[in-house]
Amino acid sequence: MDLRQLRYFQTVARHEHMSRAAEELHVAQPALSRTIARLEADLGTALFDRKGRRIRLNRYGEMFLRHVDRALSELDDARRALRDARDTGLGRVSIACETLLTITPVLGGFREAWPHADVRLYQSNAREMSRQLQAGKVDFCVASQPLAGTGLEAVELAREEVLLAVPRGHRLDGRDSVTIREIAGEPFVTTRPGHWQRALLDRLFAAEGLVPPLSCEADEPAAIQDLISVGLGIGLIPAVSRQAGTDTHVPVAWVHLDAPECHRVLTLVHSRDAYLSEAALRFREFVTSRPFMTHHLPDLRRGRGTQPHP
């Protein structure tokens, strides 16, 4: 058993697909398959269930993966610690988030304060972020929903209302607020499962015993408002989008949703026992010591500033 076998196994386990793993690793698929087969032979047990060309991590593979993730993470931390001790810079901080627009203003301020920090940014869904943290691929995740995994710590960065966006001229344009049942038949523009917008939409409708009709499932949350503006449907948009003035170039109407817990909570998540470079430590201090976003939303009914609904 060697490090290459463990790295290959970790990648195959993440994709559960030989071709995709081989493409990421820049190796030929037959060579990758032989490496995994030799690893299984060394361990004396199969790590994947195979059905034709499909593979799935079995219970032995899941058990082995937990230990491999920890072992490789420790080695990566050791390399980073040595590099940080050797270099004159602050080292690297790696961050994953669901949409890059969420963190762009924060990164701008951080880079201005610490221009020599090496920043790496990834766009990932909740499942990918959990794996990246467990494998030590990132230092922090800026998440809008709870992440699965052991040894994770989360600090709340911001809490904001989530509004209903509708096309201009829609029957709901001009309404102060609506209930879920009032919009039960409206087609929704949303994200695929795994993103917070979809989780919130499904939860709000499930609380009423309903299922939302969908007109579009997108992988890019930033595109939702554009799709709503051209009349494809209605959708859930965080209040920060209206605060940022995006409706000036992507015209939509904003309506409050009369539903409990219709908000987004942004958290900074990291692995409790992971090594953090000087850059990572300073990033954590930077984002947790000041407001992450503006918390006041202009009142939709009277044109005055008001606190968003909890």
Task: Considering the chains and any ligands shown, give keywords for the structure.
alpha/beta; Arc Repressor Mutant, subunit A; D-Maltodextrin-Binding Protein, domain 2; globular; 310 residues; two-stranded antiparallel ribbon
The top level CATH class name of the largest domain: Alpha Beta
Distance from N terminus to C terminus (CA atoms, Å) equals 53 Å
Number of domains: 3
pLDDT under 50 segments (min length 5)? 294-310
* Level-2 CATH architecture of the largest domain: 3-Layer(aba) Sandwich
Give the overall form.
globular
Might you state the CATH topology name of the largest domain?
Answer: D-Maltodextrin-Binding Protein, domain 2
Strand content: 15-25%
Structural Rg: 22 Å
Give the helix proportion (percent range). Answer: 25-40%
Q: Report mean pLDDT, rounded to a whole number.
A: 86
Q: Tally the helices.
A: 10
Judged by helices, strands and strand pairing, the structural class is alpha/beta
The total count of strands amounts to 14
Order of helices and strands: HHHEEHEHEHEEEEHEHEHEEHEE
CATH superfamily annotation of the largest domain:
Periplasmic binding protein-like II
User: How would a textbook summarize the main sheet?
Assistant: 8 strands, mixed
